[in-house]
């Protein structure tokens, strides 16, 4: 009896959220027009994505910095890109935190780091996005709008891939695998493909002569920044999977298949793989 009551209350809350955070038809179409990489989704998948976006908006708290006006255009554009990776996985992967902070453009991150000799340094650098374990996602609105598909860059997908990676702790490029969603893919299979691909990419980056670096950085489908850490490789490859899927599959076929299995989507083809309800 209790489980039926809990299910009924959950359905009531879901229906209320979908009504309260319903996305206007005109705004939804404008948002889709600005995100051409969503064109691989079939009509029923777009409908599920729209519902999930509304539920995401109901669950998260958006705020802005530096006097940026928070608008429906901003919240919906960010929310739909955040929901794309979990379309067939579910919003539970984004549990445990609520904040999304949007800056007008790049912002400064200050960190304390320890070098190989144990010396602690205070460093700061400009960033377009940041995801905190158990905390908010911070985004540059200017960068979040760089979605014309001219390259594989997508700061929203990148930071939310980090959030997925952090579900079981510190981001390490080994996101959580769930038997119900991912079997027969397991952690050993993931490591066999992903770690090998990461090592190969790092070797490729290290082999680039300084005189050719600018050209390599400009032409590489995978941003060389991905070589910094396995977690960055996972996030950058997640960008490529959704934004440049055909190019990603052509250049890294085994890695493409791994990420497609993980996200339960096949963006290089029309129509997402079947998945569970939101």
SSE inventory with pairings:
Elements: H1 2-20, H2 25-33, H3 43-59, E1 61-64, H4 72-83, E2 99-103, E3 107-114, E4 120-127, E5 129-131, E6 137-140, H5 141-144, H6 155-165, H7 179-182, H8 187-206, H9 213-219, H10 230-243, H11 245-251, H12 253-263
Parallel strand pairs: 1-2, 2-6
Antiparallel strand pairs: 3-4, 5-6
Structural write-up:
It is a single chain. Strands 1-2-6-5 form a four-stranded mixed beta sheet. A two-stranded antiparallel sheet has the order 3-4. The chain has 278 residues and is of the alpha/beta class. Strand 3 and strand 4 form a beta hairpin. Helix 1 crosses helix 3, helix 6 crosses helix 10 and helix 10 packs across helix 11. It is built from twelve helices and six strands. It has a single domain, classed as Orthogonal Bundle (Cyclin A, domain 1).
């Amino acid at each position: 009896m209790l489980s039926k009551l809990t299910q009924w209350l959950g359905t009531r809350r879901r229906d209320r959220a979908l009504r309260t955070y319903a996305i206007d038809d005109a705004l939804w179409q404008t948002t889709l027009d600005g995100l051409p990489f969503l064109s691989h989704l079939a009509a029923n998948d777009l409908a599920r994505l729209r519902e999930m976006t509304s539920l995401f908006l109901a669950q998260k708290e958006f705020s802005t910095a530096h006097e940026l006006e928070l608008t429906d255009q901003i919240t919906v554009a960010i929310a739909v890109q955040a929901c794309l990776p979990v379309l067939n996985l579910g919003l539970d992967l984004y549990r445990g935190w609520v904040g999304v902070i949007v800056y007008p453009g790049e912002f400064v991150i200050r960190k304390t780091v320890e070098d190989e000799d144990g010396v602690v340094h205070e460093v700061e650098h400009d960033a377009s996005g940041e995801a905190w374990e158990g905390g908010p996602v911070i985004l540059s609105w200017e960068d979040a709008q760089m979605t014309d598909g001219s390259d594989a860059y997508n700061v929203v997908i990148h930071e939310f891939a980090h959030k997925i990676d952090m579900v079981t702790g510190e981001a390490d490029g080994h996101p959580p695998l769930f038997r119900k969603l991912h079997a027969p893919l397991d952690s050993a299979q993931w490591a066999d493909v992903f770690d090998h691909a990461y090592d190969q990419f790092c070797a490729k980056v290290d082999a680039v002569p300084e005189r050719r670096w600018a050209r390599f950085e400009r032409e590489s489908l995978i941003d060389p920044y991905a070589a910094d850490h396995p977690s960055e490789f996972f996030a950058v490859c997640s960008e490529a999977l959704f934004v440049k899927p055909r190019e990603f599959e052509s250049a890294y076929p085994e890695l493409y298949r791994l990420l497609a299995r993980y996200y339960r989507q096949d963006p290089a083809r029309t129509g997402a793989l079947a998945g569970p309800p939101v």
